[in-house]
Amino acid sequence: MSETINFKIDGQSVSVPKGTTVMQAAYQMKIKIPHFCWHPGLSVAGVCRFCLVKVEGRPKLEIACNLQASEGMEILTDTPEVKEAHKWALEFHLVNHPLDCPICDQAGECGLQNYYMEVGKYQSQMERPKVLKPKALDVGGDLVLDTERCILCSRCVRFEKEVTKSEALGIFDRGDHAIIGTYPGKKIEHKYTTNLVDICPVGAFTSKDFRFKQRVWFLKDKQSVCPGCSTGCSIDLFAKEQTGTYYRIKPREGESNGYWMCDTGRGMYRHLNIETRQRFHYVSKNGQKIDIDQKESLNQLASKIKEVGPEHVSLLVSAQYTNEEYEAFFDFFVGKLGVKKVYQWREPTEKLNDFDGILLRGDRNSNTHGLMATLKKYGVGNQKIGNEFDIAVSSAAKVVIALVPEIPATFPSLQSNLQTLVSLNFVSFWTVNSEIEKIKGAKHVVPVKGFSEKKGSFTNHFGKLGHLTSPFVSVIEGINCVASTTRKLSEYF
Amino acid sequence: MGNTSDKIKIITKYEGMPNSRSLDTYLSKGGYEGLKKSFSMQPAQIIEEVKASGLRGRGGAGFPTGLKWSFVPQNIQGPKYLICNNDEGEPGTFKDRYIAELSPHMIVEGMIIAAKAIGACKGYIYTRYEFFEEIKWLEAAIQEAYKAGFLGKNILGSGFDFDLDHYTGAGAYICGEETGLISSLEGKKGQPKLKPPFPAVSGYLGRPTVVNNTETFAAVPWIMINGAAAHKAIGTEKSAGTKLFSISGAIKRPGVYELPLGYSFERFLNDDCGGMIEGRSLKACIPGGASAPILTPEELKGLTMDYEAIAAKGSMLGSGAVMIIDDRMSMVELMKVIADFYHHESCGQCTPCREGTGWLANIMGGIYHKEGQKGDVDKLWTVAKAMEGRTICALSDAAAMPTKAITKKFGDELRAFIERGAGA
């Protein structure tokens, strides 16, 4: 058992395991100690000298990030002396900062700006020419680097060394002419580059993908789960609500992902925007596409199922929908109607057990575990994952209900799969994306909600639930998730 | 004033002898006798002896040497390291190179004794690369010591093994800071490490390490031979022993002098060094290297050269680099040289130092180039104040302390220069 240390921060008592730093304790207690270089997911550098605190009985201020809590210690974070130290620490950080906030993507979520309001608010005393450094450098990945904005906190360098274990990034030269940069002939080439944008407390690293697209204060963020693979990273999804446009995804501290997420996951907002969404129910008659309303659409599907009988219906299901949707879907089709033929729609190129050692898994489906569990519960489908798509196609029933994979980016075979399915007897495509629109002759298409627009949960690789708890309003009016669509369909039986 | 048994020679014992660097010369006057003596002692006894001698680190900080050695854990598995900090870089200081020139074996002997005391298996002498000759002399001494059986396996049949190598630094001032030196020796960028952990627990390659200044090691053999009490009897109560002073400026006899600590500054300047050059007068003195706050003639009156007396005047003995400033020297130029030096040498890790040293140099550059503003002198002081005591190592303080002293004591001269500049 580890020893417990009792001490106080600003009069609040706290007990922590021995070895905990004052900064870690304050972070857990949500007591704000200003900092730039400290990050809960990285080693301690102790270089920004911002987190100075007063330890009762000791003469000098000390940095909270490298200060181990000891029994009976009393820490003060807002004495006049500490405040003065914080003010100066900030001023030093701004001496050579270009203050180009109006054209900086970080504006609105910048450590320098935020701390200026909290601990600064002084007239700058710097009246001499500033040190000029290279700007707008393409250093690889999703990254653009502005070394003039950089405050040399070294978070990025530590991330590279400690998390991705790559060595492209370093600090060159010394003193106030020190700059972050890549070694000659090297670029940052791993799959986690955008994390550098997140951990950069200022606007030194900006994202090529997000650059100059939107001011962050117009964006609303909601908690969600990344649907990009079976890890299920906790994320914040950012959209402009007025226009219903999604702009970016950032990781949120979570059990499955720690503090990070991969660049592939960052792109999981793209398919949600209206240009790539399936917007209408439609049927094809004589090669002509006819838009119909939901009632008519589901009525026609119900009639078709009744006409052929449940024994001639099969279900082709992708593992990119929520547990709640699977429950409603199988409860009706298998439980009520008695459909027996159920197949998993999987990407043939996926290597299920691949893992990059950090977060990204070969299973690019958000809910393989959830789907398998529901199939097992209803006693249908194959309990071993194989390429069932071909079997489903060759043993095609008269009616196939297909839950189309939501995210085309994780499903390279989507177009060819859809092409194959369109040639079959009668397939009802339930889909988030509009890939099916590129193929003529789909007999029945039902638009459904994307992961950002519904409540529900995914079961990740470890069997843990990730909750989609705070959905955005759907960018398309009047559409439902798979669960409500199923319930509405059931009304015709 | 304690005992100032005049002109006792500990470090400069071999001064004036032909071939003073050779092993034979060194052996002829008791060389390696201290080593033999220490091999008859237990490691803890050696440490106690050094503690009792009152020897303090001669690099600048003046930390008690025996105490530093005692922080190294004794009974642990794995290697421990010993490093000689011969990266003499404090502006005004040129004493360590003199030891290498005079008696490199004294450094080697001191290191072997220290290695025995802390149980180190391997040592390095880290010298700045500008010391081309000294590097050769040190390497030659190491070779001679190996041949004579003072280094390597089973030294003098004692069963104790110790290997010693020389390492040439690249000349950065910051590599004279002990953890910066360790980083450099490890092949990394020469940047100080965050403390704790301290080197005695986790130093070179993460192992217990002691780093001492060259002069500190050189004092050890004498202590072994003559005993702690004899050493303690020299100098003052708290500043025991002798110290090398490297004195420069417009004086008749600049150079390196070995003096008992507590020696009179006036006597040193006027008798030993022959006083000021004709026609020059004493304007100020920097008593312990560029980072030591400047002292005015008023403050120098009655001053003795020991850690406590100089600290009482608000400055420090530092490395013992005494810089005499005469009436022809401009404080604007002096301040600019100091500001530029620290700006150039800041490693850039800690924000207050990285930005502060640059800011000081930036303001001083403005003043020097006649673009000075009215409030600049006060600003220099304010910025320097904010740089103090806030960083990993002492470089920030080293830049701040002289800046504060010069702007406070010679602010009027700077202000007058700014006003003239603005009018010109």
What do these coordinates show?
- The complex is a heterodimer of chains A (493) and B (424).
- Chain A folds into three domains: 91 residues, Ubiquitin-like (UB roll) (Roll); 108 residues, Alpha-Beta Plaits; 215 residues, Rossmann fold.
- Chain A contains twelve helices and 22 strands.
- By secondary structure, chain A is α+β, with helices and mostly antiparallel strands.
- In chain A, helix 7 crosses helix 12.
- In chain A, 46% of the residues are buried.
- In chain A, strand 12 and strand 13 form a beta hairpin.
- Chain A has a seven-stranded mixed sheet, sandwiched between helices. Chain A has a five-stranded mixed sheet with strand order 2-1-5-3-4, sandwiched between helices.
- Chain B is an alpha/beta fold and 424 residues long.
- Chain B has three domains: 210 residues, 3-Layer(aba) Sandwich (Rossmann fold); 85 residues, Roll (Ubiquitin-like (UB roll)), CATH 3.10.20; 93 residues, Up-down Bundle (de novo design (two linked rop proteins)), CATH 1.20.1440.
- Chain B has 18 helices and ten strands.
- In chain B, helix 2 packs parallel to helix 6 and helix 14 packs antiparallel against helix 17.
- The N terminus of chain B is likely disordered.
- The interface between A and B is medium-sized, with 35 and 34 residues.
